[in-house]
Amino acid sequence: MSRKCEICGKGVTSGIQYSHSHRKSKRTWAPNLKKVKAIVKGTPKTIHACTRCLRSGKVQRAI
């Protein structure tokens, strides 16, 4: 499974996580992706879309 939204292109980002004692470790943040059946170019297709695209109505769901 790709970790990228097929609508907006939002993907994994990386950064540094700080503990309470301020020790640093590298980590990644992944987008909240859902597998949905959507209409793409007139045909129903299963895609990975982030929840922001689903809530904002950028994805036309297939029945």
UniProtKB/TrEMBL annotation:
A biological process from GO: translation
Pfam family, one: Ribosomal_L28
Official protein name in the record: Large ribosomal subunit protein bL28
Record InterPro entries: Bacterial_rp_bL28, Ribosomal_bL28, Ribosomal_bL28/bL31-like_sf, Ribosomal_bL28_bact-type, Ribosomal_bL28_sf
Gene name for this UniProt entry: rpmB
HAMAP family: Ribosomal_bL28 (MF_00373)
Keywords of the record: Ribonucleoprotein, Ribosomal protein
Molecular function as annotated in GO: structural constituent of ribosome
One CC-aspect GO term: ribosome
Family in the record: Belongs to the bacterial ribosomal protein bL28 family.
